Amino acid sequence: MLGSPFRLQAYNIHVNGVLHCQVRYSQLLGLHEQLRKEYGANVVPAFPPKKIFTLTPAEVEQRREQLEKYMQSVYTCLFVLSAGASMGDGGCTKVDRGVL
User: Fold this and answer.
1) How much is the pLDDT for 62?
2) What is the pLDDT of residue 33?
3) Strand order in the sheet with 18-24
4) What are the Cα distances from residue 20, in Å, to 1, 37, 39, 58, 94?
5) Looking at the 3D structure of the chain, how many domains does it have?
6) Domain that holds residue 29
7) Inter-residue contact 44 to 77 (CB < 8 Å)
8) DSSP character string of 15-77
9) Between 29 and 79, where is the model more confident?
10) Is residue 4 situated within a structural domain?
11) Pairing of strands 93-99, 9-15
12) Cβ atoms of residues 95 and 68 within 8 Å
């Protein structure tokens, strides 16, 4: 829609302080579903829930924080599952907001 007030919310994924990619919530949800199929629901951390209505700026920030914690948990879980991997600092994945 030309002139639509709606903007797509994207999240910038930083790994070790470097911008790795920019993704939408739906793409991260797809990743979550793939990880659940691969590793099982009891191994993969819970994913932040979908919202039906447009998010307020405060809700967007809350979701960003939840997605950052989710990505850090996934990082940690995958390292634990990897044979011979060390835990590292467990906090090298950062998520911030961007707009597509």
Assistant:
1) 92
2) 94
3) 18-24, 9-15, 93-99
4) 30, 24, 24, 25, 10
5) 1
6) 10-47+57-82
7) yes
8) ETTEEEEEEEHHHHHHHHHHHHHHH-TTTSPPPPPP-SSPPPHHHHHHHHHHHHHHHHHHHHH
9) 29
10) no
11) antiparallel
12) yes
CA distance 37 to 44: 10
Closest by Cα among 66, 87, 78, 91 to 39: 78
Give the β-pairing of 18-24 and 9-15: antiparallel
Tokens of 74: 């996934």
Joined together, the tokens standing for residue 41 give 């629901």
Q: Which residue has the tokens 């919530």?
A: 25
**Token pair 């998520």 in the structure block, residue:** 95
78 belongs to a structural domain: yes
What pTM did the predictor assign?
A: 0.71
Q: Is residue 76 part of a domain?
A: yes
Q: How far apart are the first and last CA of the chain?
A: 14
Q: How far apart are CA 68 and CA 5, in angstroms?
A: 27
Task: Tell me the torsion sign for CA atoms 77, 35, 20, 83.
Answer: positive
Q: 75 lies in a domain?
A: yes
